Amino acid sequence: MSAQRWKGNGGLLRHPVLRTLLFSLFLLQIGIWIRNYAILLFIMEKTGGDPVAVSLISLAQIVPIFVFSLIGGTYSDRWKAKKTIIICDLLSALSIFIVLIALLYGSWQAVFFTTFFSAITAQFSQPASVKLMKIHANDEQVQTAMMVNQMLLSVFAIIGPVLGTIVYQLFGIYFSVAIMCVAFLLSAGVLTMLPPDRMKLDIHQQATPIRKELLAGLRYVFSVKPLVILNASIVVCGLALGLIQPLGIFLVTERLSFPKESIQWLSMASGVGMVIGGALMLLLRKKVSPPVLLLTGIAVAGGSISVAGYSTHFGLTMTAQLFGYFVYPMIQAAISILVLKHTEEAFVGRVTGLRVSLLTGSTMVGVALAGWLKGMLSVVVLYQFAAVLFALGFIIAFPLLSSGRKSLSENKSSLQKLEGGY
Which of 78, 95, 224, 385 would you label with 165, given CA atoms 20 to 30 Å apart? Predict the structure, then answer.
């Protein structure tokens, strides 16, 4: 039985659960970005810029997302949501504290551990946070919260690297690690203000093997047409994103004939585009439906990729980059909203985890293919191929426009069939 939804009046910040979750996210973003850049700079300093060591940091951040997101989502459906996210933050803080002790004793390699471990715990806490939104907020409140969430992530995508770099350069690795620990502890403290967990698992569900629950989640996703459509579109677009992710430097050096250091201008355009797009998304949240938001975002992103690949003019490339990332918050928010809209509360964690696994996996495949294909094809051809993939993603997602309220009853029917199979 789900907890009773908050029915008070007022804006998002007056909703006790959503307000608490967003403040926790703010604190975690501080800790995460300081972690990412302080550890990156520290590893480069210790190894003399060894590319293998730097790539290991990236792997420590990405691999847990792909491997543990579905597992974490399955357990978040099984466990109490509030308890799960608090314990995850406390475990991350503990791991960071252990790393700090190791650093004091000269074992600098321990920094790989804290990155890897906190990335794992995030795969359990994030689906639990989404589940809390589903439990305590109505569709309109969830939609606004998802958009504010994405806006916050967009802002930190700009200020995060600067914050992490400044903290490390001014105070060093020990202070940076201590700040990470404090950020996670403060987040756990804030989360204690959430209402008590009301979910009670029956004996039958507690005795169900986790493998069976995971498979039930997969069957549920394939039984709900909008989720099948959404995930198929995510895979195609994720492959396209992965394909162009390592190729931005070649736009600068081959198409624009600029030195490689000029890629910072593309990064700046990306950040500005994300913030502007996030702000506009909040203004239009009540005027544009999530399917329209998603399809518009995919179309604009695909067109921007095509233009960026063809362009040999700095201004045009910057504009294409800005518009491509302008719609990024819209796409992310629309996907999150649609997942919650078409998912029963009992399966939120597993559906969220599967979506993250599919996006991460398809992006990793695209990144792996990019280097190999670049040796045979020009950057223009690869960018146009990525644009075609986005067009395919648009075509796949188009039926979402017609998936209205009838899907909710279909989802309940799917849930009843799965429960009957236990």
Answer: 95
The two tokens of residue 227 are 């989720």
Q: At what angle do helices 111-136 and 328-341 cross, to 10 degrees?
A: 60
Entry pTM:
0.82
Measured between its terminal Cα atoms, the distance across the chain in Å is 18
Q: Report DSSP letters for 161-215, one per residue.
A: HHHHHHHHHHHHHHHHHHHHHHHHHHHHHHHTTSPPP-----HHHHHS-HHHHHH
Q: What is the mean pLDDT of the chain?
A: 85
Q: Tell how far CA 223 is from the center of its chain.
A: 24
Helices (H), 245-327: 248-250, 263-283, 290-310, 314-326
Higher-pLDDT residue of 102, 191: 191
User: Would you say 364 and 65 are in contact if contact means Cβ atoms under 8 Å apart?
Assistant: no
Q: Is the pLDDT of residue 412 over 60?
A: no
Say which residues have a Cβ less than 8 Å from residue 61's Cβ, sequence separation at least 6.
36, 115, 119
In Å, how far from its chain's centre is CA 301? 18
Q: What b/e readout covers 335-344, taking b as 16+ CB neighbours within 10 angstroms?
A: bbbbbbbbbb
Q: Residue 233 class from Cβ within 10 Å (0-12 exposed, 13-18 middle, 19+ buried)?
A: buried
* pLDDT digit string, tens, across residues 116-171: 898 899 999 999 898 888 888 887 788 888 888 888 888 888 888 889 889 998 99
Based on its alpha-carbon atoms, the radius of gyration of the chain, rounded to whole angstroms, reads 22
Neighbours of 37 (CB within 10 A): 21
User: Which residues 6+ apart lie within 8 Å of 155 measured at CB?
Assistant: 275, 278
CA quadruple 349, 352, 357, 360: dihedral sign = negative
State the Cα torsion 92-95-101-107 to the nearest 10°.
-120
Distance CA 106, CA 92 (A): 21
H or E element in which residue 113 lies:
helix 111-136
Q: What is the mean pLDDT of residues 80-93?
A: 92
pLDDT at 206: 56
What is the SS3 string spanning 45-90? HHHCCCHHHHHHHHHHHHHHHHHHHHHHHHHHHHCCHHHHHHHHHH
Helices 379-397, 348-374: crossing angle, 10 deg rounding: 160
3 state SS of 106 = coil
Looking up tokens 């677009």, which residue turns up? 237
